Each structure stands twice: as structure tokens, then as C-alpha cells.
């Protein structure tokens, strides 16, 4: 199994963690599933790289390290991944604060960045 596919699986598992339900929690979960599926497809179909020494240190990859690896391979632009991650983080923050409008705006930003 390629390192990238495993990394995408880790991102998927991390994104499914339980959280406090807010006004747009389900929309966040739905979009995160779409993002994770697209990353998994890109990882499975794209080129692969050698496993780094950091990957052997029994630590979970971070979204930033996965994004950096994807960006370095050129399969998905690092700028695009960062934009999606930032928008999703804003959506989660707004959701936790009970700010439905802020959450919906952040999700719209994530959708735009994701669809590019």
C-alpha cells in the first residue's frame, strides 16, 4: 500500500472524530467526506514518493504534512489544500460557537476551493 494512500486514510479517520453538534455539523461532515474521498482517489491514482524518515517515527501525519507531500508531488496544489483546510477549520470554529451564518460562509469558501 502506498504511503500516500495510508496518509489519506489517516486524514479520513481523523476527520470522523466526534464533536459537539452545532448548527451545520452535518454539512461539515458531508463536505469532509467528499474531500477525504477525493484525496484518497488522488493518492491511489497519482505518483508516489519514497517514505520519509519522519514517517517511520510512529507519529501520525498531520494534515499539513500530508498537504505538503501531495503538493510536492504535484497531484493537488498545496495552495488549494491549505485553502480548503483553512475554510474547514473556520467552519468548525463557527459551528462550535453556534454561528450558523459564519459556518455556512466558511463552508461555501471550502466548496469553492475544493471545486477548483
User: DSSP strand (E) fraction?
Assistant: under 5%
Tertiary shape: elongated
Which whole number gives the mean pLDDT? Answer: 76
Q: How far apart, in Å, are the first and last alpha carbons?
A: 28 Å
- Total count of strands: 0
What count of helical segments does DSSP give? 5
Multimeric state of these chains? single chain
Largest sheet: none
Which structural category do the helix and sheet elements fall into? mainly alpha
Helicity, in percent?
55-70%
Order of helices and strands: HHHHH
Q: Extract low-pLDDT stretches.
A: none
- The value of Rg in angstroms is 15 Å
- Number of structural units classed as domains: 1
Textual characterization of the structure:
It is a single chain. With about 120 residues, this protein is an all-alpha fold. The protein has one domain. Helix content is about 70%, strand content about 0%. The protein has 5 helices and no strands. The protein has helices at about 5-15, 25-45, 65-75, 80-95, 100-115. α1 (about 5-15) packs antiparallel against α2 (about 25-45), α2 (about 25-45) packs parallel to α5 and α3 runs antiparallel to α4 (about 80-95).
Keywords:
5 helices, mainly alpha, elongated, about 120 residues
How are the secondary structure elements laid out?
Layout: H1 3-15, H2 25-45, H3 63-73, H4 78-96, H5 100-115
Concise summary:
The chain has helices spanning 3-15, 25-45, 63-73, 78-96, 100-115. By secondary structure, it is mainly α.
